[in-house]
Design goal:
Strand order of the largest sheet: 1-2-3-4-5-7-6
Helix content: 25-40%
CATH class of one domain: Alpha Beta
Structural class: alpha+beta
Largest sheet: 7 strands, mixed
Shape: globular
Radius of gyration: 14 Å
Number of strands: 7
CATH topology of one domain: Aminopeptidase
Length: 146
């Protein structure tokens, strides 16, 4: 296993769009096509393909917002590649990339509270559920202190 990140560009965006999650996960994460379109209008959104050797297996994006908060906006592993340990390794690569390139002291992510698989993954690398006052029935917030 050789997990690494490559910036999404004109050479790899189409293979990224072809990635998908399991049907039961559809309500938890927007499509990669939507995310790529969003990046054209979202200031400071950085997108990466998650690769195992030369094969794209996932997608991630982070946003440094106007308040200076670092938000892990997207993270997904293709349904054919889930359960192989790639998620944790890829998430650690994303965290290291952010730590190397930014001075932020924390990373935030919002997820659906019923997405127990994702909550477990984020907890395994140090993210913790955090009360912000913005929670709703379809969104909770997790924070990783760097």
């Amino acid at each position: 296993m050789s997990i690494h990140l490559k910036e999404i560009n004109k050479e790899n965006w189409e293979e990224c769009v072809n990635l998908d999650v399991h049907e039961k996960q559809n309500g938890f994460v927007p499509s990669n096509a939507y995310s790529i379109a969003q990046s054209k209008f979202e200031k400071n959104m950085h997108m990466f393909g998650i690769y195992n050797d030369n094969s794209i297996i996932g997608f991630t994006a982070y946003i440094l917002d106007d308040d200076g908060d670092m938000n892990l906006a997207r993270f997904m592993i293709d349904k054919k590649e889930q359960g192989k340990g790639y998620g944790k390794s890829a998430l650690q690569k994303v965290i290291e990339l952010i730590k190397t390139n930014f001075d932020n002291k924390e990373i935030w992510i919002s997820i659906h509270p019923k997405n127990s698989t994702a909550i477990h993954l984020y907890n395994s690398v140090g993210f913790n559920v955090t009360e912000t006052g913005l929670e709703s029935e379809d969104e909770i917030f997790l924070k990783l202190d760097l």
